[in-house]
Write a structure and sequence with these properties.
The protein is of the alpha+beta class and 295 residues long. The chain is built from 15 helices and 6 strands.
Length: 295
């Protein structure tokens, strides 16, 4: 349970402080704000997670805690025995769960910032955006840890595109952020679609991709983080295709077609396999000089 908290929050939340024993995140919840402090303590054979929330959205954050921690994750139909590497990883990481936030726009903003740039460039832009245009989280814990909320959609929609330029965000991504911010309320409704996690994820991904500027990669990143879609595959990712190829076929390089082919036996749970591979420490070999982001 503790590992799920830390991995999930670090990958998706605007402001986070945490380690292997406790974590705290701050999140925009509908019209309100919420801060959650999580503390895990081992009691006998089991583990107990205690949570405290503050702000206008506190009750909704607390109600969503089981999903956030992956306690509602359903592994029915997942067969790791189909490949020895996956079987070994599933055995060694038996506690790995997919959690979700049901916060579509919260996941969409960093995913857009991650388009066509390195992770470090996207992370810098995201945190600078929060620092410049976000607001302090509610409650004493947020104040002590200096946690800030992701900028509200109406704030982002009101910014001129050139306000994003000092953050290293060019006009294309800036305009896309402004455009989706204007329809944030409609986007949040995607979390209420009926069906299993995979069915909701597929329907939400299709709806997202009907918007110019959002392709399969961005949609998959959002449905995994926000909806816990166990079948989300980030087609178009620079590194993922090579990781899958080397881990499942011993091939140092792959393309998206080969990646989808190798993941096909686990259709319905392909994101689960990807998460296991990403947590495994397996890496594809590197060739040539590393990319250096521009100053």
């Amino acid at each position: 349970v503790v590992s799920v908290i830390v991995v999930l929050l670090l990958s998706g939340r605007a402001s986070i402080r945490g380690d292997a024993e406790d974590a705290c995140s701050v999140v925009k919840v509908g019209e309100g704000r919420g801060v959650e402090g999580l503390e895990a303590a081992a009691l006998g054979r089991g583990e107990v997670v205690e949570a405290e929330t503050w702000g206008a959205g506190a009750d909704r954050v607390l109600d969503g805690l089981p999903a956030l921690l992956g306690l509602d994750d359903d592994t029915t139909g997942f067969d790791p025995s189909l490949h020895p590497v996956v079987a070994d990883l599933a055995r060694r990481m038996a506690g790995l769960r997919l959690g979700w936030t049901n916060a579509i726009f919260e996941a969409l903003l960093p995913a857009i910032l991650e388009q066509k740039v390195t992770g470090s460039e996207a992370s810098t832009a995201y945190h600078d955006l929060i620092r410049r245009h976000g607001e302090p989280g509610p409650g004493p814990l947020a104040a002590r840890l200096r946690l800030r909320l992701q900028p509200a959609p109406e704030v982002l929609a009101s910014l001129p595109y050139f306000a994003f330029h000092p953050l290293g965000v060019e006009q294309r991504r800036a305009e896309l952020i402004r455009r989706v911010a204007r329809e944030a309320h409609r986007l949040e409704a995607l979390a209420e679609l009926p069906g299993t996690r995979a069915e909701v994820g597929a329907a939400a991904a299709a709806a997202l991709q009907r918007r110019p500027g959002i392709g399969p990669w961005t949609a998959a990143e959002v449905t995994l983080r926000a909806l816990g879609d166990p079948d989300a595959v980030s087609v178009g990712d620079f590194h993922l295709k090579n990781l899958v190829a080397v881990a499942l076929a011993g091939e140092p390089r792959g393309d998206d077609t080969r990646m989808v082919e190798l993941l096909a036996p686990w259709r319905g749970h392909r994101a689960r396999v990807i998460r296991l591979l990403e947590a495994s420490g397996i890496e594809a070999p590197t060739y040539g000089p590393r990319y250096s982001p521009p100053d």
